[in-house]
Amino acid sequence: DFDCIVSSEELPYQKNPKQVIERYSKLLKNSGMLIVSAPNSKQIIEPIETDLEKLGFSKNELLQLMKSVFPSIQIFSQRNISRKEKSPTNENKRDCKMKKGIWMTTINSERLLERFLRYVKIDTTADDSTSEYPSSAGQWTLGKLLCEELEAAGLQEIRQDEHGLIWAQLPSNVPSAPTIAFNSHLDTSPETSGKNVQPQVIVDYQGGDIQLTGDRSQVIRVTDNPELQSLIGNTLITTDGTTLLGGDDKAGLAIIVEAMQWLAENPEFPRPTIRDVFTCDEEIGRGVSRLDVNCL
Question: Helix, strand, coil % (nearest 5) of the chain?
Fold first, then answer.
């Protein structure tokens, strides 16, 4: 059993890494297991190494600190898992379950990206000129696709109800754990067109301004968006400048469905019952107007 999950972002930015490790060692003293969730090893090791150098620590010193707290620790990274595989092999799963160490949970980023790109290409623009719910046909279309993908992922009790809401459930594998719900919405804002969305995918972003390909006058500038400097090396997805992208909230839909599939594929990972509900017309203030909370 896992006693806690530590975010990868929490380790590098503490003033005293030893205190962080000792803090979690008290929580984990019975299991000796530290779980770090991260998409890949570089996003943990490189920021830790960089920040610790400023504090006078090296990466090796950090690992020694961890080993002093967890004598039997072994370090796992995404290198244990072939990038061509959709999920960890059974052997990888057994290693992560049986050995004491750091388990980096790896989401299939290529599948997640493909999922998101499928969703944004379906026009689900909300229409506040009608009283119908959902207000646009595309929300029915996306909802049907989501039902198909949730069924393929192995979820249960999947349905698109009479209002276009999507429901699904992944049962618990932990006795008496409280049920949680994941929620997102299918529609996009009517303020900008959501028709014929042409996403621009920038793999391994190297910094600098981003020119939008569909409208050369549209540029995402670093001076206006300084947070871009912290995204170097990541995959970025933008609109082409002629429509909105639909990240609000098709990014949420893609993340939830991918997370559900990962959990279904990794039944040894402890989880409560998770209920998914995807609503319509959130952008025009009607998102939960047809939601029966008793169904949650």
Answer: 35, 15, 50
**Distance from first CA to last CA of the chain, Å, rounded?**
27
Q: How far apart are CA 23 and CA 36, in angstroms?
A: 15
Token couple for 125? 């623009």
pTM of the predicted protein model: 0.68
Greatest C-alpha distance within the chain: 65
Q: Quote the CA–CA distance of 152 and 95 in Å, as a whole number.
A: 27
Q: What is the pLDDT of residues 233-288, one digit of tens each?
A: 999 999 999 999 999 999 999 999 999 999 999 888 889 999 999 999 999 999 99
Residues 32-59: b if buried by 16+ CB within 10 A, e if exposed: ebbbbebbbbebbbebbeebbeeeebee
State the Cα angle at 98 between 94 and 102, rounded to 5°.
95
State both tokens at 17: 């890494």
- Cβ-contact 188, 287 below 8 angstroms: no
- The catalytic site residues sit at 187, 282
